[in-house]
Amino acid sequence: MVAELSILRDQIDDVDRQMVELLARRLALVEQVGVVKSKHGLPIYAPDREAAMLASRRQEAESKGVPADLIEDVLRRTMRESYSSENDSGFKCLNPQLRPIVIVGGHGQLGQLFQRMFELSGYQVRILGSDDWHRADEILHDAGMVVVSVPIHMTEAIIAKLANLPKDCILTDLTSVKSGPLQAMLDIHQGPVVGLHPMFGPEIPSLAKQVVVYCDGRQPECYQWLLEQIQIWGASLNRISAIEHDQGMTLIQALRHFTSFVYGVHLAEEDPKIEQLMSLSSPIYRLELAMVGRLFAQDAQLYADIIMSAPQNLAMIKRFHQRFGEAIAMLERQDKAAFKQAFGQVEHWFGDYAQYFLVESQGLLRQANDSTRRK
């Protein structure tokens, strides 16, 4: 038995080595694709091309008795690496005449990410950090664009310091709250203004498939190139008003982060053995625990700012608290009929998305299970 297994495992090892060689070859070809895309100003992410390629490979896999989901998993992971590799080729500069870009707060992680993306696109970038305000006039005097990337609680105060920008300078920010900062920029600067909210953190290796929300401010024709440049980086754009943005972020960010915060506080107060929780958990609970745990590996000030950034956030959290209390009362009554009625109401609200999310989450759970190492 040992001899038979050894022969088969040697053959598997040989196939694995061939796979490594093929992946290396694929990545080398991707680098060449990146050069061509950079030259011609093509986005690194082409959704139609990706969808067609995956459909074709799935069909080929099935014809050879290989599970279609397997080849799609392999290709998606490979493409994620490929998008990161394409960054190294740089990007076409859509506005080569632009004067220097100044990133206010550019020493922060998000500022550094955008500095890198602009420099990969051939723009000159300057940084205005917290220790540089005595030189602010010198740094800003000929700016073609100013990007404000500072903590939320400082954003409007920093914008107020930017009163003497060149009239044609584009003023934008990267804040996750939009109404206040956008109005502050419109008040202080008479030139082009646009609000940006990158819906991702600074740790991403590529902007492919990421979302950047933008809120029009003034003279959109002057910053259209910026939006197109972001698309070349691979991101998708979502245009929305500042008010609608902040209303959406109340649910997407403030309420979500607050519930994770409270759950984390509850766990810490209950003080279970986290190793035991991990050993007992299914993939879905590991993911849920991971999503809570990652919050506490980051900056407390950032999340305090997000949660406490607007009065409507507190109002939403209070409504959630009320509904939580109503649900507890239902449990105290052991009212299964009411539970099923509420369940059906939510199921109806989700509609077809419920099944979509079920399928999507199953893929995530398979990946989580693959990465699990049991003793």
Automatic annotation (TrEMBL):
GO terms for molecular function: chorismate mutase activity; NAD+ binding; prephenate dehydrogenase (NAD+) activity; prephenate dehydrogenase (NADP+) activity. It comes from the Bacteria. GO terms for cellular component: cytoplasm. The keyword Transcription does not apply. One of its GO terms (biological process) is tyrosine biosynthetic process. Keywords: Amino-acid biosynthesis, Aromatic amino acid biosynthesis, Cytoplasm, Isomerase, Multifunctional enzyme, NAD, Oxidoreductase, Tyrosine biosynthesis. The keyword Oxidoreductase applies. Residues 1-90 form the Chorismate mutase domain. Residues 99-361 form the Prephenate/arogenate dehydrogenase domain. It is found in: Cytoplasm. InterPro entries: 6-PGluconate_DH-like_C_sf, Chor_mut/prephenate_DH_T, Chorismate_II_sf, CM_dom_sf, CM_II_prokaryot, CM_T, NAD(P)-bd_dom_sf, PDH_C. It catalyses: prephenate + NAD(+) = 3-(4-hydroxyphenyl)pyruvate + CO2 + NADH; chorismate = prephenate. Pfam families: CM_2, PDH_C, PDH_N. Pathway: Amino-acid biosynthesis; L-tyrosine biosynthesis; (4-hydroxyphenyl)pyruvate from prephenate (NAD(+) route): step 1/1; Metabolic intermediate biosynthesis; prephenate biosynthesis; prephenate from chorismate: step 1/1. In the C-terminal section; belongs to the prephenate/arogenate dehydrogenase family. This is T-protein. It comes from Photobacterium carnosum. The gene is tyrA.
